[in-house]
Design brief:
The protein is an alpha/beta fold. Among the domains are: 81-139, Dna Ligase, domain 1 (2-Layer Sandwich); 175-308, 2-Layer Sandwich (Nucleotidyltransferase, domain 5). Helix content is 39%, strand content 31%. It contains twelve helices and 14 strands. The strands form three sheets. The chain has a six-stranded mixed sheet, sandwiched between helices. A five-stranded mixed sheet has the order 11-10-9-12-13, with helices on both faces. A hairpin with a 3-residue loop joins strand 1 and strand 2 (14-23). The N and C termini lie close together (11 Å). The mean pLDDT is 92.
Amino acid sequence: MRSKTFGLDMGTTSIKVMWLVRQGNEILLKSVASIPSATKILLSESIYDRQTLAASIRSLLKNAGITINDANISLPESQVYLKVLEMPELSEQELQAALTWEMEQHIPLPLDQVRTAWQILDHTEKSGKKTMQVLIVAAPIGILDKYDKIMQAAQLNTRAVETEIISVHRALLPILNGSGADIIVHLGASTTDVAVTKNKVINIAFSIPLGGIAITRAISLDLGIDITQAENLKKAYGLSQEMLEGKVGRSLSPILESIVGDIKKSVLLFKEKNNNENIGQVILSGGSALLPGVDVFFTSVLDIQVVVANAWELNNIINTPQEVIDDASSYNVVLGLALRDLL
């Protein structure tokens, strides 16, 4: 089956595109490509910057040989309001009415300034009481309009819009525990997005305003070197205690400790809501998940098994170039978007 859509990830530091097609029990990588992107362009309100970004996307698609025009895109968690609510079992009509009130309580903007969507994730029963997990998402209309204009300028149609953590969750679905709890930690460029899952379903989701860029800046300031040098040292040495007398690791550790602090709070919250249930594993995703020693750091601080999963292998994707496999976790957002119509 040939997919009618492709994944488009307009990230903070890169633009990635991916086109997948299904062949029996396997999924064939038809095309994948990535180019650097300046952070300011995506955040800019300038028409010129918007046109520049759109031209970059068109050029990337041409070079990648992607000939379809319908794309699944993602929004950064930091620009979207997302919450999982536990509610009594309700009819659809009752749920619609209840969610209007819930959204007014949880969304920090007037409802006429956002577009909202909701999805029932799971149905449970505890002590004879039936409940349902409902995901609510709200995106500011101004943000959506910006993305609409970028897509129009790139001569593309938006087939689906979702948050980055939902895309990553889909990419990592095969490794999630079907009868237990896991944590997905997506270490992105500007934010770290976290999802606590139970029985493969998102239970808690939130974003931490720290990521790879903050780590690079910390190394740059600490060691008195420029950003490019700091980025290279970060990727080469990570948390190694042997290289450069462990200076790089000591520079980036405070950022990771701050991230882990927020994750610990989410673990406590999950346990409070779920009869002290333990977390089975932490799954690291994103470019910074590949830094030397990061998995060991998370394991020691959280005292939970940590893995850096290869979503390409998990989803039986064939025809993948080695350079993409080597950088697998940094493609999880666009991979999840490309998989959307194939699962």
